[in-house]
Design a protein that fits this description.
- The radius of gyration is 17 Å and the shape is globular.
- With 248 residues, it is an alpha/beta fold.
- The protein has a single domain, classed as TIM Barrel (Alpha-Beta Barrel).
- α2 links the parallel β2 and β3.
- The protein contains 11 helices and 8 strands.
- Bound molecules: 2-phosphoglycolic acid.
- 2-phosphoglycolic acid (PGA) binds next to β8.
């Protein structure tokens, strides 16, 4: 399985800023990183131009969409719309969607089902809050988030189009990275839940780590068991730091 080096720009970069950053990243990928796939989730307004700037060196995905074909859903974006803008991936269940926008497990499951049915590669984010961790609920929370979102999926989907990103909420944008032991524990738990859901197909499903990933900690994180990539927020907003991560 290839290692996935993914950037989540969140609500950053205008269209022109996105074009500049994407072009710089594409130029930096002239010599391709061995065994690694690069992926960028820009804001939807920059998706088209970022996809066009990729020179085929990275894929793009949308950070959010609504799981209906089209219709009266003011303010929402459909999967066909992002597909025409070049997106091959979708991000679902990011903790900012869960916590700031109150997205429930049920909606996240609908999004995963819709995205897979519509041929997208789908990255599901899971992760516990500090309170949940301190209450000893890590396993319970991860099991609930994974089972509710993925129980409609087949082993074939698990081994071809699904990815999971473990992002402990307390490590996102805080500068606090989980320790290698924390990451190993969570990724091991996630692999166990995936095995229960999909059997041996789960071995082909990449599990990424996200939360204050930076050039200086990437190699160590990628060396942890069951870590198959990283999802990078803040440190992906400049070409140099993101490229340093990609080649770490
Ligand atoms: P961060 O964000 O790298 O800024 O912590 C990661 C994410 O939320 O995907």
């Amino acid at each position: 399985m290839k290692t996935i080096m993914a950037a989540n720009w969140k609500m950053n970069k205008t269209r022109s800023q996105g074009e500049a950053l994407a072009s710089e990243v594409a130029a930096g990928l002239e010599k391709r990183p061995e065994g690694r796939d690069v992926l960028i989730f820009p804001p939807a307004t920059a998706l088209n131009i970022v996809s066009q700037s990729s020179m085929g060196r990275f894929e793009t995905g949308v950070q959010n969409f609504y799981p209906e074909e089209n219709g009266a859903y003011t303010g929402e974006i459909s999967a066909s719309m992002v597909h025409e803008c070049g997106a091959t991936w979708v991000l679902v269940g990011h903790s900012e969607r869960r916590h700031i926008f109150n997205e429930p497990d049920e909606l996240i499951a609908r999004k995963v089902n819709f995205a897979v049915e519509h041929g997208f590669k789908t990255m599901l984010c899971v992760g516990e809050t500090l309170e949940e961790r301190e209450a000893g609920d890590l396993r319970k929370v991860l099991t609930r988030q994974l089972t509710s979102a993925l129980s409609g999926q087949s082993p074939e989907a698990a081994s071809s189009v699904l990815a999971v990103a473990y992002e402990p909420v307390w490590a996102i944008g805080t500068g606090k990275t989980a320790t290698p032991a924390d990451i190993a524990e969570a990724h091991g738990l996630i692999r166990d839940v995936l095995r229960a859901l999909f059997g041996s197909a789960c071995e082909e499903l990449p599990i990424l780590y996200g939360g204050s990933v930076k050039p200086s900690n990437t190699a160590e994180i990628l060396g942890v068991d069951n870590v198959n990539g990283v999802l990078v927020g803040g440190a992906s907003l400049e070409a140099k730091s993101f490229l340093d991560i990609v080649f770490a």
